[in-house]
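Lecture notes, unit on protein representations.

Consider one protein chain, 637 amino acids long.
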Amino acid sequence: MTTYGPDDAAPEASLDHLAAVFQSAVDAIVSIDALGIIKSVNPAAAKLFGYTNTELIGANVSLLMPTPDSVQHDGYIRQYRHTGRRKIIGIGRDVHGKRRDGTTFPMHLSVSEYSIEGKMHFAGIVHDLTDERRAQAESERQQILFDAIIKDIPQPLVLADNGQRIFLANPAVKLTFGYDEAELVGQESHILYASNADFERVQNFAPSGVTSADPLMVNCRRKDGQVFPAEVVATSVTDRRGRILGNMRSFRDLTKQVAQTEALHRSQRLDALGQLTGGVAHDFNNILTIVLGNLEQVFESDNPDQKDDFSRRAMEAAEMGARLTRRLLSFARQRKLQPIALQLNDHIAGMVEMLERALGETVSLSTAFEPKLWTVFVDPSEIENAILNLSVNARDAMKHGGRVNIETANLQLSTDDVLDEYGVSAGDYVRISVADNGAGMSSETVKRAFEPFFTTKGVGKGTGLGLSSIHGFVKQSGGNATIYSEVGKGTMVNLYLPRADLGLQPEAVRKADHPSTVENLKVLVVEDNCDLRQLVVERIRRLGYAVDQADSGMVALQKLTSDRFDILFSDVVMPGGMSGYELGSRAREASPVTRILLTSGYDSEFASDLNDTDDEFRVLRKPYKQAELAQALRECI
């Protein structure tokens, strides 16, 4: 490198080079003499302050300063020249500049000293801090906003790093979980969950890098160990470059909401129970009125044909009562269906006479059957209940009379059909339609028609279980039920049942033949209700069996040890602490040759819940017909 003395002139090339640097510098450069007069400015300076070069050169540099610096600047220079004490020269500091339009801006000023021909000069390099200060202010504003949100938001917020270690928690965490922030920082975040399974559910629901707007229900744990239900919203935390810094979890304590929901459900169950009680009482009173009225006519009439007709009506009413209890049990627990291959045209045709009597004289019944209707695989008793219930509903909707029409049809649904309208998937179905021209229903009523306990009938005039039971049965059978109705024009209920496999052949509903007289077989009847026990004894005696009776399990065991019985026929629920199941189990030990048959008013699945023995028994459900009793006894032999 060549060194030049004080009297040597710099090469022309070097001066040109320095001039180019001065002119192209990004920051503003201003040079002044010892009196503060501007000697030169670069283009960046002229642009920054809003002046032309001509306007700046020769002017006092205080022109570029706001007060008080503009007033005191010349004094700063004089003081430096006399004392040598520096305030800014060679140090640099943040100050404010003044543009031609009078606005000020933050800047960093670096001042250096140099001499030309023995005279003192100063050069100032100005860096505009406007963008940096704006960014800093925005960052501070966001930090203040973030702190305010974190502090004041009522939901607990917890931030954890990628290693699931907590590094921040807001004050609401203390109120919900009982932890101070200092206790949580550095802890693994699973400390807030009731179990590792709950923690993993949240992690799997919103893995790293994924943000979920949907809340997730989990169980959390407070500092004192108490477990409580909560909603968690999982959010990923990223920087401006998209790098994952960790995650944020927002919690909502659901303890009060769950308690309120449970209280509401209890209230709804009580309301439903009241409605159910009134409805069942109404239906049973109607049935008992028919039974009692017809039996009175039997006793009062001397005409054999009339006696038979009155007896048949009483029997049909009793069967309606049995169907009502089955609907109640089906609603309480979805009972196991007993489907068979069935030809619905024949089955419904066999119900016409009963339906006409149920509908009354003011309502006419018509049918329209598909000639070659496909076979379906359904429970015959359930389809009978459905047709009867829909027909009675139609009758009740026509207070001044009308018409009920029952139709069957084959229906092929492809993927091109609007399957949502049918509520089933593509395939072959048999459709049963029960239509009336009654009062109809509003769209709001149609939406709720299949809800349990919902009824448009008055208080005590319906259980609200009919349509819900039908809907449940059809769904269990693989189909669906729909309703179309218009106010003032009537209602149509459609049942869609899947077509049976082609390999299945239709068969009629099985009817138990009346058994031939059974000789030399003895049955022990165990029933605590005296009237019912006498009826059962008489029915079994009419079947040809020898019969003895007992009113409790203990009496029955005594008889089994002193006499020989072929069949033990016992109620499941009896007073005295011994159920029919326990009696049957002990009877097998006392008399291994005795066959066991139980009976119960409960559904068979309900009755099996009462069995605390290791033995299995057949249960004949009440009420039962004579043919069903005969069939059950015969199968025990």
